[in-house]
Automatic annotation (TrEMBL):
Domain Chorismate-utilising enzyme C-terminal as annotated: residue spans: 187-440
E.C. numbers: 2.6.1.85
InterPro entries, per the entry: ADC_synth_comp_1, ADC_synthase, Anth_synth_I-like, Anth_synth_I_N, Chorismate_C
Any one Gene Ontology molecular-function term assigned to this protein's record: 4-amino-4-deoxychorismate synthase activity
Anthranilate synthase component I N-terminal domain ranges (all copies): 16-147
Alphabetized NCBIfam families for the sequence: pabB
Pfam families: Anth_synt_I_N (PF04715), Chorismate_bind (PF00425)
Entry superkingdom: Bacteria
SUPFAM superfamilies per UniProt: ADC synthase (SSF56322)
Sorted UniProt keywords: Transferase
Full protein name: aminodeoxychorismate synthase
BP term (GO), one: L-tryptophan biosynthetic process
Amino acid sequence: MTDAHVAELAYPADAAAAFARLRSLAGAAWLDSGAPSHQARHDVMVALPGRELMCRDGVCWQRDGGDWRVARGDVWALIADMLGPRREPVPGLPFSGGALGCFGYDLGQADVVTPRDERPGDGVPELWLGFYDAALVLDHVQRRAYLVQRPGGEWSAACIRERLQDTVAPEPAPFRAGALSEEPGRDGYGHAFQAVHRYLRDGDCYQVNLARAFRCGFSGDPFDAYLRLRRWSPVPHGAWMTLPGGESVLSLSPERFLAVSGDRVETRPIKGTRPRASEPGRDRTLAEELAGSPKDRAENVMIVDLLRNDLGKVCRPGSVTVSQLFGVESFASVHHMVSVVEGRLVAGASATDLLRACFPGGSITGAPKKRAMEIIAELEPSRRGLYCGAIGYIGYDGAMDTSITIRTAVCADGVMTYRAGGGLVMDSDEAAEYQETRDKAHAFLKLAGEGGSGD
């Protein structure tokens, strides 16, 4: 029998306005299914975590209702310990309390990049998780809203309910972007591209995901920027959160990383991209070109094989299958090639075990993963931070849903940073790959303006 209490509330027609009422509460976060689909029909809104876990500069910190203190031990073991014994789920609700937050790509660097990676970062922690005993869940298919609380979540639930009754949603201050810079620019990207090709020719690896950063100063409220971005580029795995240091995370990810329901596991790697076209015939041609591209199929199947291997570490022998190969899914500014890999967890394995085995996602590293990550650390001039990590939840009931943090901006110390990249293989074309980074950054470039600087 579940220990959760569920109350049905009035369904808010405007999810953004509902979250705007909650946003000033400590630890407020929104998992936003801005493009509802079979993958993502629910929004999850949380605030006022009873406990928190944060890792910054290699040190983990824990807060259990009071001050922050250093937490010693393996980060994945700390997460599992804070989640505690598995609790009964609430039927029909994807999240009924648990850990929700973000996992930076750099969490996966510890066993790969030695000595310690001294490249500059984006000013955000490697990990932040709030542990929530109350949540607002919106079902956009049934158009219903539920306030769910676990023991200890009574005060948080009461605060959420009270805020939702406010008659006016606060308006964010208009976001204004400053001058745009790119790291590296066109020439620097070309040098890194050629270095990757040398590694590919020498047999070090089969594929490397090479990324670059776009940055701008800004004034105003980043939440205004998020609202504009989600209007331009609705996706099934959007997210907004404010971290303990005041940093903002704005994610418009199209890619599911790992989902767990019961013992069933799913990952949906993206490899292969074409821009959208305004003319329907041309747009259809681009999608068909992607579907039949030998290069993109080769990239995609490399990552599918990598993820099958990762899932096999914690799934039952023979249970890992590819249920979709080379599917094409269309978003506001791009078409993507998407495959689906599924499996069933071995007895006793948890969502945290799965995340540890697969982190960071193979679709944003390359293959083989360890060598690709070493090359990325050598050639990208700054650490990735949250980019190519994960955002999502691990529930007290053992369920999990996470996205890959692509199409994601972070705002810290007055600077917004957005990264975009792509997988490089032997027959990749430098100019086309460079353009692909701009195609993937389309919404951000629209927000920041097309002017840029770089080498």
